[in-house]
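Here is my example:
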Amino acid sequence: HALPGSLLQMLLDSFRTGVRTEPLLKHLVVVATDPKGLERCRRMHPLCHLLSGANGAAPNGTELMFYDKDYVDMMWARNRFQARVLGLGYSFLFTDLDILWFRNPLLRIPVGADITLGCDNHFGTNPYDLDKAANGGFVYARPTAASLAFFRDWYEARTRWPGENDQVVFREMKHELAARHGATVQLVDTTYFHSACEAWKKFNFHEICTFHAACIHGLQDKIDRLNAVLDEWRQFKAQQVLLGANSTALTY
């Protein structure tokens, strides 16, 4: 989707229009799943990487349908790639393309967690409650022994649920793996990391770090929703600029 008006274009635009997010672009590596995607990525961003062994690449750049075999394979290739980054000794913050960045998410991610994931349905006040609905489209992980073991066994557990993606296997295994390896796993607060799955919850541009077009099926519907939110953000920023010193919304 590395074309003008694509998900990648909107992600990059959100970095450029967010609050102190543009400098983060020099740390953003876009991972392509096929050579055509890599070529398109390089037209838009200097840091692009071709994911080796990604059998989930869409033929001729067509849209992968949710839960098609190629889609599931791509999700597991993503999971394996993340584990490889951890194995090299690096922390990472992974973001799907259908996420807009308005503020630096690291300001709201708990530094003590080994693994932090996105959330589709947040409730309660306990950040360690894993009974919420996790979303693997947003993941932060530190290269600790616990996180490495968690990711290793998470990937291996896919054989117990054939045909299921990484998110489903996480749901089934999260308590067991966290306990087995002593991993501290948290899910983000959707007050700051809004998910479109919570369509009833109005997000606040004064607080929001990211907007995830999760639970919106169909590429064009995602693009339309993200375009609308990005336009709303630009209008919000313009209003805050007019307020000048009376507004703190654009200072962090």
